[in-house]
Design brief:
- By secondary structure, the chain is of the alpha+beta class.
- The chain folds into two domains: about 200 residues, no CATH class; about 110 residues, PDZ domain (Pdz3 Domain).
- The chain has nine helices and eight strands.
- Strand 4 and strand 5 form a beta hairpin.
Length: about 375
């Protein structure tokens, strides 16, 4: 029962919420464009309940793994109210609107997180090690230096330092630091001097060195409860969403530059992560996790892969490049079916790896 409450239940709630918001984007833009929406379903069949209203079936289904929208004629343009019968730009808007909703949603989730009172662990972030030949060594940073600011942003704890340094990956950052004089101890303000230096964040650092070649430690942990009014929380939510997109971009570039395969998790792995988040940080932390998952859902859906929204958009763009000549509907449908089969196979393989990790007692966090 504890596992159900800590892992499965919050995972289902988060995933259903994110997918329904995604599908709501398709639903609203399709309705606005005059496309017939055959069904808006929460969960997947078999059906529990349904009601038809203005030509659309609204259903609740037994498998609580998300939701879906069925549009008339996604590949077949024979009906004037079908999606395929609409101009190319309209189809692109309808197809991309789900991902757009998943990008907009984190603004609200992050804002809600900032409005809820929460403890912020405050402490001095100090350089514990400087690797030889690293950008940090070239910048003159030494063991025992305290990081005060990165690109003008105040460092209040380890999470701040890790986030702001990651945001500067691939760029030259400006760091403000404090160096204790010999004999005064690490990180103390008395008998110390402040200095500023430029540090480059590498795309492909040696294993275990990090972007700048340093290891950090936090001295002290003085939690402070904070919450913000809505007029401050919303701009903070916008900023956090934009930064999360930058971090996602940086991660992809880093994988490419370092020639490393990305670490992925399927539904089982995400459920495990959800359980760990609830266990370690409480239910409020689900707001941040949901925001990050929403951004990932948006990015994945826009990839130009068959069956995904990005794959369907790709067919529309091919049509535009061919001067309006469509790919035959039956051929496009076949490509999407093949993509669906491959995707399900990939999920099965990833889920198998996730199960092995759980059986071996490994944590999803490394």
């Amino acid at each position: 029962m504890a596992t159900l409450l800590q892992s499965v239940l919050p995972f289902l709630v988060v995933m259903v919420f994110l997918v329904v918001v995604h599908e709501l984007g398709h639903f609203l833009t399709a309705k606005a464009a005059g496309v017939t929406v055959l069904e808006f379903g929460i969960g997947y069949p078999p059906r529990i309940w349904g009601k038809k209203l203005r030509g659309t079936d609204y259903t609740i289904n037994w498998l609580p793994l998300g939701g879906f929208v069925r549009l008339l004629g996604e590949e077949d343009p024979t009906d004037p109210r079908s999606l395929a019968a609409k101009p190319a730009w309209v189809r692109i808007v309808v197809l991309a609107s789900g991902a757009l909703m998943n990008v907009m949603l984190p603004v609200a989730l992050f804002a809600a997180m900032f409005m809820v009172p929460r403890e912020v662990p405050l402490g001095r972030v100090v350089v514990d090690k400087v690797n030889p030949g690293s950008p940090a060594e070239a910048a003159g940073i030494k063991t025992g230096d305290q990081i005060l600011r990165v690109n003008g942003r105040k460092i209040e704890n380890m999470l701040d330092a890790q986030r702001y340094i990651a945001l500067g990956q691939g760029t030259t950052m400006t760091w403000d630091l404090r160096r204790p004089n010999p004999g005064t101890g690490r990180g103390v303000s008395a008998g110390s001097e402040d200095y500023t230096t430029d540090v480059y964040g590498r795309w492909a650092p040696p294993k275990g060195q990090g972007f700048t070649g340093i290891s950090l430690t936090q001295l002290g942990n003085n939690p402070e409860e904070r919450s913000y009014p809505i007029w401050e929380a919303v701009p903070m939510g916008v900023r956090s969403t934009a930064e999360s997109l930058v971090l996602a971009r940086n991660q992809v570039i880093s994988w490419w530059k370092a020639r490393n395969a990305p670490e992925v998790s399927g539904p089982i792995g995400i459920a495990q992560v959800t359980g760990e988040v609830v266990k370690q940080a409480g239910w409020v932390a689900l707001l941040e996790l949901a925001a990050l998952l929403s951004i990932n859902l948006a990015i994945i859906n826009l990839l130009p892969l068959p069956m995904l929204d990005g794959g369907r958009i790709m067919f529309v763009l091919v049509e535009v490049l061919r001067g309006g000549k469509r790919v035959p509907p039956e051929k496009e449908a076949l490509v999407h079916v093949a993509g669906f089969v491959l995707l399900i196979g990939l999920v099965v393989v990833i889920s198998y790896v996730d199960i092995l990790r759980i059986v071996n007692g490994e944590s999803p966090f490394k």
